[in-house]
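Box 3.1 A note on notation
Throughout this textbook, protein chains are presented in two layers. The first layer is the amino acid sequence; the second is a token string describing backbone geometry. Keep the layers aligned when reading.
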Amino acid sequence: MNIPINVLALVFVLSVLIVVHEFGHYAVAKGFRFPVEVFSLGFGKRLFGWKRKETDYRVSLIPLGGYVKVVGLGPDESDVALGQEPAAPLGPRWQRLLVLVAGPGMNFLLALCLTAAAFVIGVEVLKYQDEPPVVKHVEARSPAEVAGVKADDLVVAIGGKPVSTWREVEMDLGLAPRENIPVELKRGAGTVHVTLRPEPDKKYDIGYTGLNPYLAPVVGALVKNYPAEKAGLKPGDRIVSVGGADVTGYYEVVRRIREAAAAGAEDGPKPIAFVVERDGQRLTIPITPRAEAGTWRIGFAPRYETVVKRLGLVEAFASAGQELVRQTQMTGVTVARLFRGTSSMRQLSGPIDIAKFSGEAARSGPAALIGLMGMLSLQLGLLNLLPIPLLDGGQIFVTLLEAIVRRDFPLKLKERLLQAGFVFLVLVMVTVLYFDVLKNVSF
């Protein structure tokens, strides 16, 4: 049932973002009296629409995109979409530049408004992400343990940049798999310097370090047919003790399970007494752990505490601006690492990922969906500013070069650049889609 909702959410999200982007081109072009032949939502065969004055407003077969055909703007994606010969450029270059910039500009404006709207409605965020990055657990044999990080260390700087929240720590380390990163820690009254090398995960190539914040010992979800579910543990149960030893955090529960199971492993796994609080009462539930992948599991995940971040209008726009700056910096870091070869195309999201995220956001409520649309609008604007032929950024780059040399380049040269850009983008899209399938489809 999730798939139809995901697809509908994807079509809705992309349609809004593309219409706004193309409207930016359209409005400025109309303002400068450039003829606009086509305003299309989607590519390929025209399905339906209407014509007003010289403009054909249409919905086309392939919904993952759109274009505006502005006569006199020079070769662009509409010439590829329509298979037509481009018209000679019209109007001053500064007007053409403003028409080209208007599309990404509208995406940035929409991203700001949508993100601010999400903050006004109320965004549900993980509570620990805005807390000081005090390490409460270090995974055994993880990069953090190898580097010498200890429980109760406070992360104060990563790569020489001060950090103050878990959100910053996860972002800076997660985007840098396979890189040696200097990390400064506060340990007691002193300072410790270590070098972390995050390991890439197999799905999204996100850096794994083994650093963990405090998590309450509350059951969030159960794995079907695992010992915890069979024994009667329920979501919402707060675990008070394991095998007679009191626990105050989730990772203590994990450690106590391993210790208690290992102690009786010679004679086979034995039931471990779990004392839980449920509806104001304490219950004792015996659970026999399962040996799996060299460790002992009962099959439950912790509950991540969340808080609703709700802001007034002025503060919402200020916070939205800060969030968009942070996301822009993240995007820049990711693109730079891709070009350096230290990152992977797995970190990029294709249509399957975006559909999944859109569906999850739609099911979570309006604030989540609006917030996701704001983030995607920003990414669409940034993507279109890359200096790649066929994208707005490529055309802006060529127009700026023409302004420097004070003459327009031949149409044939621009067409060749457009064709090269088309081939490059098709290769990128095929690669992203390939990893999209690997990440989301089980064979």
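The mean pLDDT is 87. The first strand starts at residue 36 and ends at 52.
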